[in-house]
């Protein structure tokens, strides 16, 4: 689906400049970003742990209330609270791929215990994958696991892209509860499982490499825990030990988390690149910030994801420092700087922009 398409009109080229015109790097912006944020690169463990554990506690408490509640309204309200809180907790998987683990001792373990295994989204599904998205010569190309030219595809591709995410929790149960144990009996199946079903990627052409060394040992330990949990969940439901109502609520919350994340992914970029290698500035302009005063992004783009374009400029800055980095750059850079061109108001306008792009003739 991400095969490059041919531009047919000059108007189309003008409509999507980041995809059609070679954008030179803006040296002033890049220099300011580097120099003004040198003191912001150190993660603060107390902030990470408090934020993460607080999100987990609220999320599972909300889920418990949703399952135990009798009034439908309370089930819905508690389920929504659980959904957003667990989504925030799951979003820390993004930080795991950027922060040096020595700076956050045992945080990977904590993530996998409280979120990765219970929600079947272990850390290895992003580690070794997301860093490719930030590789200078991979972003926006067919080698980028997290990129599709959605703005250049058919209009129906957008709702399909979002709605298919609702099935993710069921797919993950099947992947870990069925495919993981079966793959022990078949090397060929094992290769398929690792290459195609072990990454949080949206590019269907992406194939991840087989893990090696310490990462492989870590992978096996975490995947074993996921498989045991998934098989146990299947057995609990099949035997009636876990009531269907409780299971349905759990799946509804998990599906909600997946759909919110997919919506956030949809508006994280403009998706206008056709496979060309892009400059850092072009990558920035193809990405999205939704800074204050907008408030809703704090829910649907948590843990620094509201500064996604800025994150592509400064991938080493921890999430809790991105707001300060944005304030510093906004105070210094001229209003004509491309820095401001990646700032948007919110999700509806971004979805409309991408949807309109899919309807243009090409």
From TrEMBL:
Keyword entries, A-Z: Membrane, Transmembrane, Transmembrane helix
Domain Fatty acid desaturase: 72-341
Keyword Glycosyltransferase: no
Spans through the membrane: 57-87, 108-126, 156-178, 219-238
Coiled-coil residue spans: none
Pfam family, one: FA_desaturase
Domain of life assignment: Bacteria
PANTHER family named among the record's database cross-references: DELTA(5) FATTY ACID DESATURASE C-RELATED, FATTY ACID DESATURASE 2
Stated name of the protein: Fatty acid desaturase
